[in-house]
Every structure is written in C-alpha cells, then in structure tokens.
Amino acid sequence: MGEGIISHHKKEGAYLNNFDYTFFRYPRALFTNPVFASISIEARTLLAMILDRLELSQSNSERFSDENGNVYVIYTVEEICKKFGCGNKKVTKLFRELEASEMIYRRRTNGSRPSKIYLTKKFFNALKKDFAKCINEPLQNVETALCKASKTPSINNEYNNNNNINNNSSIIVTDDEIKEMIEYDCFYCEEYAGVLDELVMIISDVFNGTSPTVRIGKDDIPRSIVVSRFRMIDSDDILSILWQLNRNTVKIRNMKAYLIMMLYNEIETKESGLAALKAKLKADFG
C-alpha cells in the first residue's frame, strides 16, 4: 500500500530540480515583527498576496499609478474568495482588519470599478526594521574593512580637486537629505551603523563633488551620469546592498571603492531588469 503513496525521492528530486515553482511573497517579518502580532494569520496571508501583486503593478506602473504617481493594486473580493475558498463576508472582514491595523488603504472608485489598494508606509517600515534585526550573520568582515577604509583617502581623489568645478557646485545636498532619500532610520541599528554612514558619505561625495568624473571600478565615468543614477537610489537598493554584503564571503580590500561600485551597479541592474520585464510584458500581453 505504501509503495503507491510514497514518492521515489531520487527520481522526484531530479524532476523537481527542473520544475519552475511560483510563490507568493511571504516576508518573514509577518511572523517575527511584533507589529503584525495582532493581525490574524488569514489577514497576513492576504497582505502577502497583495504584496506579491504589487510587483506586477510596479512593472506596469503606467496603468496602475494614480495622479500622484503612487502605485496601487487591484484585487477584487471575488478573486480572493476563490483563492481562499470562502464567502464575501470573510474577505471583507479581512480587508477591514488590514485597514484597521493601517497596513493597507483602500480608495473607493466610482461605479462598479474595484477599489484601489495601497500598501502603507507603516507596512514597509515594519519589513525594513525586521530586516535590520533578523539577519542571521553579523557583518563583521564589513565593519573591519570600514575601520581600515576610514584611515585611507577617499575612493576618488578627484573629489578633493577644486580645479574643476561642475555646474552644480553651488547646490549642496546635505547628509540629512540623503538619509531621508534612503530611509536611513528604517535600517539603522548598531550592527549596520558603520555601513549606512559610509553609504551616506559616498552618496554625498558623488552629489557634492567638484571633479568632472567619478571613479567606478577601473573606469572614470562622467559625474553627471553617476549623479543621475544616484538620484534613483531608494531604500530598496540599500536593502539589497546590505543583504549582498551580509552574504559576501570574499575579503574586501577597499570597502569604499566596493560600495560605490555596488551602488552604481544596483541602479544599472534595476534599470536593465525593469526594461527586460516591460519588454516581456509587452510581448506577452501586447
């Protein structure tokens, strides 16, 4: 009897390795961050489903952005009922629970069109704070490298060259403005303080530098290009960089040079990935 029920692990394993799974985004924070403790498991699952669909909305932001540029999600009660296998009253109750906890905001529309669903800053801040607290391995190698880097000159000595003043030299971007741009407070904790402060200093050097070029790896790139890229940096990019640093096992000799290259490449990767995704959506849906 058991023979017909239990799968043959080796054969099944070989098959599963070549199988493309699809998953909902279900952040660990939904279980580990006390902010979500009072929210029911079903409501948290609905929250994860909304977050998953947000990625689709972002990739097609021309259709799913409001007049203020905010990206929203369309998820009808009927669609969720089918996925949950429950009635309208249950799903409506879950939506109200998420609204009461200030995790989502629903904007009603005229007529029979479905509501626009927005994930709130409170929700995203909870995810980011959880990330800062729940990384398994400390960034010891990063902190050590930063201590060494602080005793060396800046990545690009041209930053201190006052002979060439760029056209925007009179516009100074302050550290506070940069911290607000990357949502510094959402990530800040003692473990990552050194990395975050170094990132702020690097971004400030790029924005406020006076030389015509910035050294990225082995290349001298026009400052205007680097500045335009760095203006696109947001908290998601910082989150990605912290995650990559945490997983890095290679000794980093020049931390400042390494970080500026990570920042530059992060935006480049995001731009190329978004272009590829838009191209695929256009090919798939016209």
Topology:
Elements (H helix, E strand, L loop, with lengths): L8 H9 L11 H4 L8 H19 L17 H8 L3 H13 L3 E4 L8 E4 L1 H14 L5 H10 L25 H7 L2 H4 L5 H16 L4 E4 L2 E4 H8 L4 H13 L7 H31 L1
Antiparallel strand pairs: 1-2, 3-4
Helix pairs in contact: 3-5, 4-5, 12-13
Write a brief caption for the model.
The chain has 13 helices and 4 strands.
Distance between the termini: 51 Å
Residue fraction in strands: 5-15%
The 3D shape can be described as elongated
Largest sheet: 2 strands, antiparallel
Polypeptide structure, described:
The chain is mainly α and 286 residues long. It folds into two domains: 9-122, Orthogonal Bundle (Arc Repressor Mutant, subunit A); 135-276, no CATH class. It has helices at residues 9-17, 29-32, 41-59, 77-84, 88-100, 121-134, 140-149, 175-181, 184-187, 193-208, 223-230, 235-247, 255-285; strands at 104-107, 116-119, 213-216, 219-222. It has a two-stranded antiparallel ribbon. A hairpin with an 8-residue loop joins strand 1 (104-107) and strand 2.
Structural descriptors:
286 residues, mainly alpha, Arc Repressor Mutant, subunit A, 2 domains, two-stranded antiparallel sheet, 13 helices, 4 strands, elongated
